[in-house]
Design goal:
Length: 360
């Protein structure tokens, strides 16, 4: 037999559960519509009055139409009293490739609430970073022979013939690639703030917006005419390499990106999923380099500076210069002459630091 007090508690719990269900049910009210309309008006006012062309937005090379630049994204985030918080989604660094993929969460300063998010990637596969345009004399100085130079792609700038060579400053691009990925993620995230994407669309292409085409898109900002597509495919090319479009469709399990969007998903969702699959080594064709598990390395394998360099490359793809820079030594010779710690101690220190950074 149920005691009276217990019965009352049961009834109260049931009523509480029903009330909770009602509370979380979305309700569109006049007040909500008024609030949303006001937010959209303020977002449009912010974009049109605060952003300056050729400073905060403008033409992006390789993209049809105008786009938001990093300074503009910073202004928008500051106006919303928010700041960007970066997370590493994927990082690959070898002698032949540097790739960074980052996610940016937009955090409200006062409450700490995440109010927006975006992703961005950059890679040395992109022609902007893979090549440099130089004069013939510079190409010779870099070690290219006359036959090699004659077979190079050329262009004329100010009536001077320039030749396309492999970037001779490849090793100095780690920070550049990371910063560009961060900027792309920030501009992508800024567009997810309330009303910003539609306001930018009106600013960049008022004629198209006047026709109301934006309302028919599967996802705001992901329409077939959106400049975000160029960014998306550049990211896929940097991560997946040759045949990136077919590989992207295969990874996502669709025959076209239109099919992906019809599922109610966005380009950001697609980027995150592809990165997760590459990172987990589940992608066909072994697109992600197979790294050695650092926790499986034994002390007997790291006996000196040379073996430390080899193990760090096998585990993380680091070049010797980065190994010693991260370990606070000028070079392997400097490490050996100092005699302060063993190579194994350095490896353990670097491994623990990397583990902490990736955990964050």
């Amino acid at each position: 037999m149920v005691q009276p007090s217990t019965a009352v508690e049961v009834v109260n719990e049931e009523r509480g559960a029903i009330a909770a269900q009602r509370a979380i049910k979305p309700q569109l009210t006049e007040a909500a519509i008024t609030s949303i309309t006001y937010d959209l008006q303020m977002a449009e006012k912010l974009v049109t009055e605060a952003l300056e062309e050729m400073v905060d937005y403008g033409q992006i090379p390789g993209v049809s139409g105008k786009g938001l630049w990093d300074p503009g994204a910073s202004k928008i985030m500051n106006a919303f009293e928010t700041y960007p918080r970066h997370k590493i989604l994927y990082h690959e660094e070898t002698d032949a490739l540097i790739t960074w993929a980052l996610e940016v969460e937009i955090v409200h300063r006062a409450s700490g609430t995440i109010v927006g998010a975006g992703v961005g990637a950059c890679s040395t596969r992109e022609p902007k970073y893979k090549y440099r345009w130089v004069l013939k004399e510079e190409a010779k100085r870099l070690g290219y022979s006359d036959p090699e130079i004659d077979s190079m792609k050329t262009k004329r700038r100010n009536e001077v013939l320039e030749y396309r060579v492999e970037n001779p400053e490849y090793g100095e691009q780690v920070n550049t690639i990371m910063q560009m990925a961060a900027k792309r993620a920030e501009t992508d995230a800024a567009k997810t703030l309330p009303g910003v994407a539609s306001a930018l669309r009106k600013l960049f292409d008022p004629k198209r917006t006047a026709g109301g085409s934006g309302a028919r898109k599967a996802k705001e900002g992901d329409g077939e005419d959106s400049p975000r597509w160029t960014t998306f495919w550049n990211q896929m090319k940097g991560i997946l390499g040759d045949g990136y479009q077919e590989k992207t469709h295969k990874i996502l399990g669709v025959t076209s990106m239109k099919q992906w969007l019809e599922k109610g998903k966005s380009l950001d969702d697609a980027t995150r999923f592809v990165i997760e699959q590459v990172k987990a080594g589940k992608v066909a064709g072994n697109m992600a380099p197979v790294r050695r598990d650092p926790t499986a390395v034994k002390e007997t394998e790291v006996t000196d500076g040379e073996t430390l360099e080899k193990v760090m490359e096998a585990c993380y793809g680091w070049l010797p210069e980065r190994v010693w820079a991260e370990a606070n030594y000028a070079s392997r010779k400097n490490f050996e002459e100092a005699g302060v710690e063993t190579a194994w101690a350095v490896f353990c220190r670097l491994r623990d630091t990397i583990r902490q950074l990736t955990a964050e």
